[in-house]
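Extended Data, panel c. Modelled sequence:
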Amino acid sequence: HAVLTVGLKADHVVTGVGINILASGTTTWLMQVIWRRKGTSDLVAGLETWSVPWLRDVPIIGTILGRHSPLVYISFALILLGWVLMFRTPLGLRIRMTGEHPEAADTVGINVRAIRYFCVILSGCLAGLGGAYLSLAQLNWFSKDMSAGRGYMALAACIFGGWNPLKGLGASFLFSFTDAIQMRMQTSEMRIATELVQMIPYILTILILAGAVVRSRPPAALGKHYESGNVSK
């Protein structure tokens, strides 16, 4: 994605959709090669669950956070590290300057191209970490389209959180809460079509995002190519 958007200056949306389609087809093909199956893989050895003694014994919080995959705790740590990186380090200042005003960044000697390559590659690694959690920590198997659109909800959380890691975490909790509601409703005695219940998180995401887009201001140069000191669409 970095090569296409930063190096070849392709459209971000088009390349993103294309990579999603390519990844879906490639993973399905690899599943047939490895497990000789088209729908769902065999069970795989997942990550062990960590039990944190001092956290596990805390009322309410311990029940929620005391026993999880190590990827969960790594993710929380990465959020804090991401916030520190973005708002408390010189590198974070360069990243924000590159996203807001690449011309100004270029005039003070910042390599805009290198910064953008770094950010796109890092974001891909973090997205891969989320996929690894689904297949190795939550389910212990792989299935086509197993993310079920959660990547788009993550994008919505990023926008709703104003491109701030800590605020994005709060938005993720909100969207996760709506997802938990639909799961509870499916196991309840309420006579509602399953398809309608499954739509709840996405409908609420759209409604929340519609209001957030009006107030949220993305980085000025987001999705815009930079070349020879000029920002062009």
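The mean pLDDT is 85. This feature is highlighted in the accompanying rendering.
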